[in-house]
Amino acid sequence: MLLPALPLATGCTGREAYEGTFGMGFPKPVTEQAENIYELWLGSTAAAVAVGLFVLVLITIPVVKYRKQSDELPRQVRYNLPIEVLYTAVPFVIIAVLFYYTTVSQNFVNDEREGGADVNIGVVGFQWNWTFRHDDAGVQVTGQPGRPAQLVLPTGRLIRFTETSPDVIHSFFVPAFLFKRDVVPGRANVFELTINKEGEYIGRCAEFCGEKHSAMNFSVKAVSPPEYESYLTELQSDPDSRIGTGAADGALRTAEEAAENISGRRG
Ligand SMILES: [Cu+2]
């Protein structure tokens, strides 16, 4: 309870102290959506700590002030309507406020822009690796055992991810995005985000999916849009990377099967 208050005591100020106190080890967000989630986290933790401290004070005061003073039994009371109404209403208000901010944040994170995103990425989770399709450029990368796939993405662009699985449920999880979404066979899960910080971020499968689940690692590399373009051009010159050809074909076929499966169900 008192631990998170430590950074406050160490003399850092303002925003820094706020994050240090209530961030509780959350990774620094690197997407617009993650920043929103991060603020929600900081705010709810701050509220929880405030409520916790308030309750501690309310407990401590009577414990100290009304210690046993004699063998005489204190006045016995029951039913205090105003207080009972208060401690029913106040938690309700707290929950309502948290619910409101959670819903606002959730809507923001789940928002899909009308008219489509700037970049379209296909994410295929399969036992036990990942294929990332750059659908606009017709190329893809597939992780191999011992050689995790790297998903290169541009910063400052709205990216739409469409997730499919040919086998079991996986989960696309990038801690720095403060976000994960299950990859479910038989349906396409879609989400959008905008990365605002260049860098390399680790990714994991966050849903136990079988024997080699722990090997389903990948990385996300966020680069500037021009760098992303030249990366795509480079990838296009490698015939193995083209969708439907070469070494990645096996994984891609499963992706296509998944896509067919989906359109079949929808139709
Ligand atoms: Cu998995």
Descriptive notes:
Helix content is 40%, strand content 23%. The chain is an alpha+beta fold. Strand 6 and strand 7 form a beta hairpin. The chain has two domains: 3-68 and 77-110, no CATH class; 119-266, Cupredoxins -  blue copper proteins (Immunoglobulin-like, Sandwich), CATH 2.60.40.420. The longest helix has 34 residues, at 32-65. The protein has helices spanning 6-9, 14-22, 32-65, 81-110, 225-236, 249-266; strands at residues 119-126, 129-134, 139-142, 149-154, 158-164, 170-174, 179-183, 189-194, 199-205, 217-223. The mean pLDDT is 87. The chain contains six helices and ten strands. It has a five-stranded mixed β-sheet.
Average pLDDT, rounded to a whole number, is 87
Estimate the strand proportion.
Answer: 15-25%
Helix content: 40-55%
CATH superfamily of the largest domain: Cupredoxins -  blue copper proteins
According to CATH, what is the topology of the largest domain? Answer: Immunoglobulin-like
Uncertain spans: none
Provide the spatial order of strands within the biggest beta sheet.
Answer: 3-2-1-5-8
Radius of gyration: 25 Å
Helix/sheet category: alpha+beta
Q: How would a textbook summarize the main sheet? A: 5 strands, mixed
Bound chemical compounds: copper (II) ion
Count the domains.
2
Number of strands: 10
Gap between N and C termini? 54 Å
Number of helices: 6
CATH architecture of the largest domain: Sandwich
Just give the CATH class of the largest domain: Mainly Beta
Strand/helix succession = HHHHEEEEEEEEEEHH
